[in-house]
Amino acid sequence: MPFSLWMSLAAVCAMGAMSPGPSLALVLRHTLGGGRLPGIMAALSHALGVGLYALLTVWGLGALIERYPALFQGLTWGGAAYLAWLGIKALRAGRAGALQADAMTTTGGQAARDGMLVALGNPKLILFFVALLSQFVTPDMSLAARAIIVLTAMIIDGGWYVLVAVSLSHSRVLPWLQARAHWINRATGVLLLALALRVVAGPLH
């Protein structure tokens, strides 16, 4: 996979992970309620769920490209429309997307369970991956390249949420995030709209 293409993938994954939402709020709640370890457990288990979705999406898309090219083209255009819709929604969120993370008493086991369930139980996550990864997968893509895509999504997701948990456990990161949630939403919206336009203009590979 060309480095420039990987950078595009990494940038979208990073902005998706950083965008305020239920996953981030979950990590914040467990960190506030149980300290550093529960926050990290929630982050890592969420990353495993993300990795599983990415794995299924990459392999499923590869088979779809080979067997049903017309259907895959439709999926690509549908994915572009979905990315554009997410971008517009993020831009319109403004301060309404501010984080609401109420503290609660929690344990590492509860945090790990909740992190996995939030990832696997979020239908928007699988739709996002299908929309996103369809722009990077090719029929002749090697096993190593597919593994890079999966690991990139998983490591960036886990790395961001672990960073949040570690930082929040000994500093005042939460008020900073709350005050700037609307800017994160706006940056995410612009990036998603740009990717959607790039898809309409032509394939990324």
Automatic annotation (TrEMBL):
One matching Pfam family is: LysE
Q: Which UniProt keywords apply?
A: Cell membrane, Membrane, Transmembrane, Transmembrane helix
- Membrane-protein topology: Multi-pass membrane protein
Transmembrane residue ranges: 41-65, 117-137, 143-163, 183-201
| Superkingdom to which the source organism belongs | Bacteria
Localization in the cell: Cell membrane
The answer on whether this UniProt entry bears the keyword Cell membrane reads yes
GO MF entries: amino acid transmembrane transporter activity
An example of a Gene Ontology cellular component annotation for this protein is: plasma membrane
Q: What is this protein called?
A: Threonine/homoserine/homoserine lactone efflux protein
